[in-house]
Amino acid sequence: AQTIHQWPVAEIKAVGSPLSLGCTIKGKSSPNLYWYWQATGGTLQQLFYSITVGQVESVVQLNLSASRPKDDQFILSTEKLLLSHSGFYLCAWSLGDWGVAETLYFGSGTRLTVL
Amino acid sequence: GMPVEQNPPALSLYEGADSGLRCNFSTTMKSVQWFQQNHRGRLITLFYLAQGTKENGRLKSTFNSKERYSTLHIKDAQLEDSGTYFCAADHNAGAKLTFGGGTRLTVRP
Fold this sequence. Notes:
Strand content of chain B: over 45%
Structural class of chain B: mainly beta
CATH architecture of chain A: Sandwich
CATH class of chain B: Mainly Beta
Strand content of chain A: over 45%
Helix content of chain A: under 10%
Order of helices and strands of chain B: EEEEEEEEEEE
Oligomer: heterodimer
Largest sheet of chain B: 6 strands, mixed
CATH superfamily of chain A: Immunoglobulins
Distance between the termini of chain A: 38 Å
CATH superfamily of chain B: Immunoglobulins
CATH topology of chain B: Immunoglobulin-like
């Protein structure tokens, strides 16, 4: 069975500090991977997606970057956090050929508070 | 307007009641998905539809691409149905889903 693991569960960070969030998918080969951001009480906004190792497409940047160093790993990071980065970050995966959206499955999320 | 408009933004039901949520799309969408987000933030995938209707227990969803809408119907609402429901639609880019604003559902005993 496939599993998706996000880390850390929660972070409290200072403005201007670096950030790295991680996501690992096990049990699926070559999944499509996604990062979403959700403001408190808001909807989900897609940040990045990746269909293969080393290839990441930006949807909305928000002064963040993403990388896919391995087939089963997706990393979200920034060198300098802003207050506006606070929120809930969700990693998701799907299968499907390029250009075809298939069912999304989400991780449990990371709650980020920037002070 | 917004590409995905979800209504109502909030809904309160008594246990046992039936109700529906709706998403209207500003353009033709290729597919739609529905999710439930619980109080911990966990998103549970409910349905994926490219067309037509699907049912799963007390939930039923319909997607009409031509008429640009999708609905989620909840029958015999239970306390555990409380949460925020989101629809998300695929316009044509495949890898990009646009989420609706969500419907916060509260089921009361």
